[in-house]
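step: validate -> pass
step: tokenize input -> pass
step: predict -> running
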Amino acid sequence: MKISWNYLQDFFTDKLDKKVVLERLTMAGLEVEDETPVAPEFSGIVVGEVISCEKHPDADKLSLCKVDAGDSEPLQIICGASNVAVGVKVPCAKVGAVLPENFKIAERKMRGLMSYGMLCSGNEIGCPDGVDGLLLLNNDAIPGTDIREYLDLNDSIIEFKITPNRGDCLSYTGLAREIHALTGYTLKDKELYSDFLTKKLENFSFNPEASDKCPHYVGLAIKNVNNAKASPAWLVKVLERSGLRPKSSLVDITNYVMIVLGQPMHAFDLSKLNSGIGFRLAKTGEELKLIDGTNARLVKDDLVITDGSDNPVAIAGVMGGLDSAVTEATTEILLESAFFLPEVIHGRAKAYGVSSDSAYRFERGVNPDIQHDAINLAAKLVLEICGGEVVGSIHSVKATQSQVKINIDYADMLKLIGEDIATVEIDKILADLGCQVVVEGEKRIITPPAYRFDLKIREDIIEEVIRVYGYDRIQAKMPILAHRFNSVDSKLNQLTSWKDALLNMGFNEVISYAFIEESYAELLADKKHDLIRLKNPLAGLAVMRNNLITDMVKTLQHNINRGYDSLRVFELARVFNGETADTQPLYLAGLIYGKHHAGWSEKPRQVDFYDLKSIVENLFSAYGKLDFTTLNDNPLFHPGRTANIVINGINVGVLGQLHPKLGQPLGLDILPYIFEVDTSLIQPEISYNLSSVSKFQKVNRDLAFILDKSVNVGDILKSISALQINDLLSSTIFDIFTGGNLADNQKSVALKFTFQSDHTLTDEEIVSYLELIKQKVATEYNGQLR
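step: predict -> pass
step: emit ->
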């Protein structure tokens, strides 16, 4: 939002210190993005009136002028502008003046005659007006007046970055309120406007059908207006310095009300409304040509303004229709001032592919109590600038939801803030913000002002107090830390622990857009869920992701294209299987690709399934019984190098190598290994069974079995576990071999078994355990000892 600093000053009785105000606003969250002077530096230029003008005797294109520049004697100035004439008032640079870019004016001889100054164009003083020649001033300009003062050039345009929650600051009034609360500068008394809403508009229908979506609607009819009359200079100046382009006097007036009070308005041509107006929900198939030329196909149940024949004439809060818009020929108008619920307008401008200052404000929330003031101010200006007579008004008011009341204990607030702020100061801060404060025992009941849509809960009030009090005033203190033995029961700590573990294993975290391209969705999306498509996609990102595998693959492609041959990345983010919270679970996914560098003593090798399996075991083994089950039907993964991740009997995710059929369309010669889990399905293991570590030696034994290639090694390990050999600590695979003297349909699987007991194991005990294992593998899997 852009504002004129000088015009903002008019809202205060005090002289504002610009540096202090801008610094406080930035510190309080209303960031100053830019400050631009309205004109470059120059000096010595005053208002000059040409009192005589003759042709130069020796130059046809030069004029010899006498100029009243406020001195006792007129100045002789030679000028070459085509529009110089007797009686015009123009900027006059006297001898000694310094123009922009340090151009100094001195007396000089021109074709034999002396010139003691220079008459200036708008371009020459840094104020281009589009006129070829001198900058012509109004007749009220007094000769000798400093031109910077007369044209109000000692001003600057301030651009603020207003966050979406602070729609109340999108006006001079709102910004002035904020400055008052932050600095204590005194606001001028609120201007009282004449009430033009006393007479009902006759012979004009009004149908407020959807009043639940528009609780307050005011219309005022004015006839005999002259929209061809130019807007006054003061109005044009305020609009231009506020970032708006002047259009016509009626449009300029409604825009002025919007930037001053924060109330968007619209002016209809009354003669084109078929003797009525109303608002209702749009119907299927309706269309409307908007002011900017857009042909809008109305979306069913969007709020629209209608004429007396129930035809749409505007998309409520977004943009008016072209057919009912005011033109230079308009002589009677209906001014509209309304409060539309923010949720009704939110996103509608983007849905129709248009942009408007009205929608920008309505979707953030406008003050529901200023519709009368806005229309009365607009009517006052219309009568002053365009002339006319007020005919009558229409009015619809529906009781809105009562303003939220927030209970808060100041003592609890101060504990959170960590600063001892006096009660009287907190009360003043809240009062300056427009809040009502009621004392009830040790607590306060805070009622935020109607225009603060962002103040809903206790924490919002605490944030406001800190913000206005000043973050820089809060003294640094050592935090009081609460030590907990068991932090795994916290979901936040659970997520943090996974992140930390992955970072410690050499992964990098990535944060991706939630939107993906159709081409990626076709290849990699989870086909078990319908895809959510965007109505107005950004740069081809038309689909909401329903897994993180797509993001992992896109990240891999991005890094390969930049020359990286190894990668470990993870992402913790939501996926979208529907529009409700329970269909948008938080997923954790990780990818490994390229070489595995174990250390100086081991040659680099390509990462494999077991590298990823080890990572998954490190992440989730503390959360219950972790198993890996066979998975052959997932089209995204290699059927022989994938598995389900099962925790406490619940299938929480998948791991494996990307399916070979995806390599070519994705441009991947080497396929990555990926895991993905739904974190909402993983519950932390709260209870722990602790046991003492045996003091007796571990015993390791290896067995190698010849098996059919179709046998899953994971199933063998489960079968061995089912034997419930108490002294068997672990069973792991350390080698799989094919080829050699084995048949084509066979493979050799080598297993390592670790035994330990509460006594020294005998050879007989170990042999008996191994016999049980061999019998189990032979019986269930036809495995032969190699």
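step: describe -> The two ends are 79 Å apart (CA to CA).
step: cleanup -> pass
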